[in-house]
What does this fold into?
Amino acid sequence: MLDLMSKIISLSKRRGFVFQSSEIYGGFGSCYDFGPLGVEMKNNIKKAWWEEMTKKHEKIVGLDAAILMSPKVWQASGHLTAGFADELVECKKCHHRFRKDFLEKEKCPDCGGELTPPRKFNLMMKTFVGPVEDEAATTYLRAETCQGIYLNFLNVLNSSRLKIPFGIAQIGKAFRNEITPGNFIYRTREFEQMELQWFCHPQGADRFFEYWKETRMKWYLDLGIKKENLRFREVPKEELAHYAIRAVDIEYKFPFGWKEIEGVHNRGDWDLSNHSKHSGQDLKYFDEEGEENKLSSSPFAKARETKKKYFPYIIETSAGADRSFLTFLINAYCEVKGGRTKTTKAVKEEEVVLRLDKKLAPIKVAVLPLVKNKPELVKKAKEVYGLLKPHFVCQYDELGSIGRRYRRGDEIAIILAVTVDFQTLKDNTVTLRDRDTMQQIRIEISELHNIIQKILEGEKFLKFGKLIK
Ligand code: GAP
It folds into this structure.
């Protein structure tokens, strides 16, 4: 199974999904760059998350807070104190961390793995703001994006007409000085989070926790992650982060084991009450109307609010964009033995097909002249490419046999291939090929845009033409 990771890493580099950061200088500790295909795919993941949160839910708004914040934020949040600044050892195998002073043996209590030497370790990345590098100028790169949301709780409340329960969604970079990063982009020191903070009455918190847990699991399933490779894990009390009352991880079965891809947390009033205390600002919510929430769908309908001031509870869903990226890539990777094209000599070759969801595939359409040494075919294919390019992420490819080009496209998840052949020159029709079934239909160029659009939106491929045998 670990072999699969080598294949994913090699494909990522070879085809331009992910590169090692600072590679020409020998690489830089667990940082990665997203290449031309990687950036498209990662943007698609973020877009799918953003649309799910802000378009589907009328009570969720977005935010883009600064990475740098007052160092006081991290005092209040507990990141500079609670647990984070202790002597820690980390298991090299399962990556669980332990307070050195809590350990009885020199082995990992969870899996028996070897432990790193103890270190006073704070995950926060220190930096200096301004020209003088002293204590007064010290701040930190954010270790979780959500703190910017809590700081803007009042701003959002006062500038919008939102009433509790409501949510604030944010996507952005976070930084952690991980002791043992690894497994490619699974655990890195710079990564992106997609976080929702859902503010609700304490009495509604348990119900909303269940709601968000299920809703987030469904998101992965809807985007094609295989059900048997996903599960919930209730985080035991002793492993809970300092801010959490309850946490459930969504885990994926990676080649290196079941691992967290997203955390759903009940943070109680930890954040708002601590920021209130440290900032001197009253971050309590006053429910003027004390009326029953009008949203019809369960569990919202039952969320009765009370007519008094209180610190809202926060239910958080925190997903990693990079971890999701790796999850989608691994989930989509298939090797099809025996070849999938009859048109090439390489019938017996093993072909890689990346069966990414239509929404996530970095390139949607390939435009291919049947052969490249016929100028009239090339000219026509370029015309078709020009027609589609403003509407879809497209690729023009004329190098190599048509079968080889189909395979190159399958390997990077291109959903549809448009082939311009000799018949095109006679009747302005082209063949359209579907990545997953390899089925081909013949359609008019004038209908291409419309049909591609509909197929990408989920309509059945064969609805638009007869199968070419
Ligand atoms: N605000 C809550 C929070 O940050 P977390 O469980 O520490 O919770 C949430 O992180 C998610 O962020 C994880 O499930 C993972 O997807 C992502 N993440 C955390 N640390 C990461 C790292 N070092 N590299 C890549 N992704 C990471």
Notes: The radius of gyration is 26 Å. The longest strand covers residues 257-268.
